[in-house]
Amino acid sequence: MKNQLPSVWISCIPLLVLVILISVAVSLFGDNALNGASQLVLLLSSSVCVMLGLSIKSMTFRDFEKTITEKIASVSIALVILLLIGALSGTWMVSGIVPTLIYYGMYILQPAWFLVSACVICAVVSLMVGSSWTTVATIGIALMGIGQALGFSIGWTAGAIISGAYFGDKMSPLSDTTVMASSTVGVPLFTHIRYMMGTTWPTFSITLIVFLIVGIVKGAEGVSDVAEVSNGLRSTFCISPWLLTVPVATGYMIYKKLPSVAILFFSVIMACVAALIAQPERLLEIAGTGDTSVKSTVIGLLTMMYGETNIDTGSEMLNSLVSTSGMAGMISTIWLIVCAMIFGAAMTASKMLDSIVFSMLRRTKNAVAMVGSTAVMCIFLNLIMCDQYLSIIIASSMYKDAYLDNGYEPKLLSRTIEDSATVTSPIIPWTTCGMTT
Question: How many CA atoms lie within 13 A of 26 on its CB side?
């Protein structure tokens, strides 16, 4: 097998090109690098990989096309979910669902305890439903709004939401990644979960302490904005407890374990009905036609699902809080995922990924090196394959025999895979999890 693979030095060339070009893109465009520059960098790096593959192996361009098609097809559902999340954020905001949650949440969740509360709430929800994505896309959206209203930066609030969602996901017997990590290695599910507690609970405890400290320090800074936000929400939206029936119904669908696509779709539909009943003026404002016809209402309804919505609340700070971008706001995200998948497919088809994997495996001499190699490989696979499911499957198939041959317990492998492949996926911008969160 070794003789059939390209050398590890050649295999690393596309990665080196990617790192260099990404650095250049970030230095030139900053935060806007994800709006196009990074996508082009991934395509350029893919072209380097393809050219090297065609020159050093007996391959055809058709081989690359086939692998690219398969990789993109593997994330097609994830792309649909991203579009639905965009529609959900728009409809839940304009319909008054998120404003209502923000309005009541500001008085229930005290600023000092907000980040800890958000983290724990998401952990409990994710533990019950076994899905970090569903947790982030539903309760996470509401908590983001509450956090902004209380004066917390988007980064801290998102961090609390994601930390809780992924903790619950790792500990839940209903989680697909947890089941996948244990089953592919051959470890009983609850044995795997109990063994993960040794790394997960200490990490989660430290995380809560950090969020508590930050909440105490930063919570006081945003208290003065609460009155402004609550008055602005009251004057702009119809704030009513009955609007909370939509998230309650969504929670019931989650409890019944409906597919994520179905949950998000029906949540969008329910929010549209709520908008027609509770916020007809906001729909007309979004339409911008200047009349009150049914046509204008329909235009507003469709726009809040797919396009940008800018509602005037009389407060510049609150305007930015309630503005949304709908499905259109997800286009650059989907573009990035597709380009990342193309790069991963090129590395796979050219066997350059296999060459790097083989080089790492032969250097593992003890348990520490084996675990470290596994963790590094899982992170590397997330960077290249852009999907945690592929990373889990590939890593388990690569290392399963190596762990057995060296006398290491299979549960050590399953835990290491979860501790690396699953939890690092949301912090890599071009993975499906990174884009969703």
Answer: 7
